Amino acid sequence: MNSIPNNQNNNLDNHLINCLDKAEEYICLESKHGFLPYLPGQNPTIESSVWGALSMLSRKNYIIDFFQSLLSYQNKDGGWSNQPGLLGSDWSSSIAAFALKIIAKEYPDFEPVALKSAYQKATQWLLENRSEYYSNSARFALLIWRGPQYDYPHGWPWTPNTFDWVEPTSYALLSLQNKNNSSHIEKILKNAEKYLFKVSCPNGGWNFGDKTPFGEPEPADPHSTALVLLSLKSRCPEDLHIQKSLAWLKEKQAKFSSIHQIAWCSLALSTYNYTENILEFAISKQNDNGSFCQNLLTHTIMTLSLKTLNNPSYLV
Amino acid sequence: MKKSRRQFLQLSAAAVTTSNLSTACSSNQKHIQISEAQKTQKPKGRSKVFIAKSENYQEKNLVDILSKGLTETGPEIKNKTIFLKINLVSYSPEHPLVTDPRFVSCLIQTLKNFGAKEIRIGDGPALTRDTDYVLELTGMKEVCQKHQIQFVDLNLDDVVERKNILKFTNIDSFLLPKALISSDLIISVPKLKTHHWALMTASMKNLFGALPGSKYGWPKNLLHVQGINESIIDIASSLKADYAIVDAIIAMEGDGPIHGSAKNMNTIFCGKDLAAVDSICARAMSLPVEAIPYLQLAEQVFGNTKLEKIDIIGEKLENVLQKFELPPTFGTNGQIKNLPGLTASMESGST
Prior knowledge:
Chain A is built from 13 helices and no strands. By secondary structure, chain A is an all-alpha fold. In chain B, β8 and β9 form a beta hairpin.
């Protein structure tokens, strides 16, 4: 098991660089045309691939490959299916759109027309596929009663025509937040934000999106909490519940032993400038081939959390 | 008093909204149409369910019992690749949430004794993305290591598309995990529990965990929106599990499937007809079978739930009868209650 000797910052940076290099090489090894599966040897998925690409932003050739693949998998309706080509567009559409946004920011001269077109189609799909509590007839009645601009706090579902949940709503917020949004879109995002606060856990953090799914309180979990914190960072970082959730995450990080939970915790905390040094933990988990664990999604999140250690605004 | 146009529109909107929210309630209160074509899907003939008592999870005792059950009612095991679809919903030291790892271990040993070519176990937990962590905390990881078998996270596995045969929901086809579909035999190995929304969960409801969260989400909300009972039947008929072995040695009563209490039932139920197995489980729990819509539906299109069509082998049903405390969502007659705030929670659904 590797450990970091007590040394100056130079050595620490070298350890970080070395660890990240190995992690990135592993991503290259397991990817095909910039796309990653959840587990080695499997078919690629949008979720793993996007987080993989986000952790490889400095490698332009990788991003080019990823982008071409992502475009080829975009469905005619503008969305994506997490398992490309299988069944219809789903929650992974927002992660894909988020990737397009980040690539456009990182590489502004890279295929601007194709990228913008893909992003606009994705945005349209997302705006048309929020969750709905009301049937068509009820919505028609509301349209007459409250007018076309009426909206209410709700978010995004996992699959179309179902209810809203924390994770897909957070992804949608991440993908749709832009400086030059119309007031209509901003209203929608504000209502998504309200939905997230509505379903937050009283003691801090978020779970999948139901405070009492079986009549009893369901505790928060780090994955959901981390995603919400990322999605709200540019909107309301000083909000009391955000601060409470960061405190909850910080407290939990010290107690977690699961690499999945630590990776998500660290990513969120680093983004808010709580620079808990997870480098030692990451090095202790890193195998000779550069992987932190078998699950490639978790591997990419751990890689990203290391990248945000010294650069909190790497992602948001 | 004459109403203004504005008041009329407000009242109309309220009426339509209320009506639609009520319609979205559990299909516990909804009449489900069954076509003749759907009825032809039901296999003909009688069903066998094996019942045995087991005071504990001790290996020698349990392997003997499971061997007997397989011999009396089981499919051919020799040289088959087998997938055990267990229940790994979550971890709690206080509640018996999952198929007991000792039970799973004994079952694996039994199947090896019967000459199984390959055995894998798996689940797709609906409420957590960190399956590895639940695997470790529940002790199931040790079972896999002990027997050197693979655990498959069904939430993340490669998938194949399979047509929805019965279509009581509006779902045309399902994405199902390759590891499951490619096995010669699929065995549903649930923990017997009461259920907050469905009244009970046994071998058929256990198959919800076969659907990958990578497509359907965490939780798999599509299944609740389409109706829990309809979804149970559609998934069971599309997946075609070959056998059920129910861990009811320590079951769960009360506010299951997560917050209920342990109930020492000391019983195992096995059978090829999952509907028959579940209906016997329900009777053993002293639940009103006619109040469980998915069993009523199953009787028409999937398997036998009526006692006169089921041969019970081993222990007598009356010797394993116990009164299970119902979830607070159900009245003593097994009908779901209209509790305040219940409708919204039911619509959102979880597992």
